[in-house]
Write a structure and sequence with these properties.
Length: 131
């Protein structure tokens, strides 16, 4: 009987831990949606990983959007563009661009990448039924 109680206790603890992670994930999605600058998006992305989330699409890829590890991520190592006819440039370039439409497109590109990947991660957590 004691073994059964221990198993139930462990399952309950895991369920609680998963629920906390889901709530945090939803808060991070909201935080990313409320960002209004490239620097805020950078801070949001760094927070995602500092909170223990491991999302492959938001991590280092030598020729991808994020060309350094999250701990070393700067506006100079985030590359945006290759959409709507825009060349690929660093987030710092787009942040200071006088082309407000292009700047907004690239800002939304990064913001949507964060939100979409967090949403997928959160849905995976919600639909993952252990045992």
């Amino acid at each position: 009987m004691k073994i059964l109680n221990n198993i139930q206790h462990l399952l309950f603890a895991e369920k609680k831990k998963k629920q906390k992670k889901i709530v945090l994930c939803q808060q991070l999605i909201e935080e990313a949606g409320n960002c209004t600058s490239f620097k805020q998006l950078l801070a949001c992305q760094q927070r995602i990983f500092s909170e223990g989330f491991s999302i492959n699409n938001l991590n280092y890829k030598p020729k991808g959007m994020f060309r350094t590890t999250v701990t070393q991520l700067t506006l100079d190592s985030v590359y945006l563009g290759n959409i709507c006819g825009l060349f690929i440039k660093s987030a710092r370039y787009w942040e200071s661009s006088k082309d407000y439409v292009a700047r907004d497109i690239c800002f939304r590109q990064w913001q949507n990448a964060i939100i979409a990947n967090l949403s997928t991660y959160c849905n995976t957590l919600e639909n993952d039924n252990p045992l």
